[in-house]
Design goal:
Blueprint (H helix, E strand, L loop, with lengths): L3 E5 L7 H15 L4 E3 L26 H14 L2 E5 L9 H12 L3 E5 L10 H5 L3 E3 L2 H10 L6
Parallel strand pairs: 1-2, 1-3, 3-4, 4-5
C-alpha cells in the first residue's frame, strides 16, 4: 500500500508561479515513493491570476470554505505531513499552522523544513508538532524517500 504525503507551507504574498513551482518540485521528487497531495491540486485555473496569493476572499471553486474543508480532508488522508516553512518566512502562515495542528491531533508524522533561526515560526507549538526537522529541502526529500522502505 502506497503511503500518502500532504505538502503544506506558506503561500500568502507569493506569486502563483512560485507556489506551483514549489509544489511541483516536491511532487516530482516524492512522487516515485508516495501518493502526493498538496493545496494546488486541481487549481491550475489559478495560474492565470495576477498579483500575489492572498489568505482569503476567493469567490469561485477555491472559496474560503472549500479551501478549508479540502485542506483538512487532505491532512486526514495523509500518513505524513511535509511542511516547508521557508517561503514567506516573515509572516506566520495561519493555514499551515492549522494543518500542523490537525496533523498533530490526528497523530500524523510531520516532517518540517525551516530556516535555522526558525524566524516567526519559532514557537513551542511548532517545535512540538513536528517529528523531524531539516534546514535544507533536498535533505528533507532524501529523508522522506527512505521512509517507505523503512530505511530511516
Amino acid at each position: 500500500m502506497t503511503m500518502t504525503v500532504y505538502c503544506a507551507g506558506p503561500m500568502t504574498g507569493l506569486s502563483y508561479d512560485e507556489v506551483f513551482a514549489r509544489y511541483e518540485h516536491i511532487r516530482a521528487a516524492l512522487g516515485p515513493h508516495f501518493r502526493v497531495l498538496h493545496p494546488m491540486i486541481g487549481k491550475d485555473f489559478l495560474r492565470n491570476m495576477e498579483g500575489p496569493m492572498k489568505p482569503t476572499g476567493y469567490d469561485h471553486i477555491a472559496s474560503d470554505q472549500a479551501i478549508f474543508n479540502r485542506d483538512q480532508w487532505m491532512v486526514r488522508q495523509c500518513d505524513i505531513l511535509f511542511v516547508d516553512l521557508r517561503p514567506g518566512k516573515d509572516r506566520v502562515s495561519i493555514g499551515t499552522m492549522f494543518e500542523m495542528a490537525w496533523a498533530s491531533i490526528l497523530g500524523k508524522y510531520v516532517v518540517l523544513v525551516i530556516d535555522e533561526d526558525w524566524g516567526v515560526h519559532d514557537h513551542a507549538f511548532v517545535r512540538m508538532a513536528q517529528h523531524a526537522t531539516f534546514h535544507d529541502i533536498d535533505e528533507a526529500i532524501a529523508y522522506m524517500a527512505k521512509i517507505p522502505a523503512g530505511d530511516i
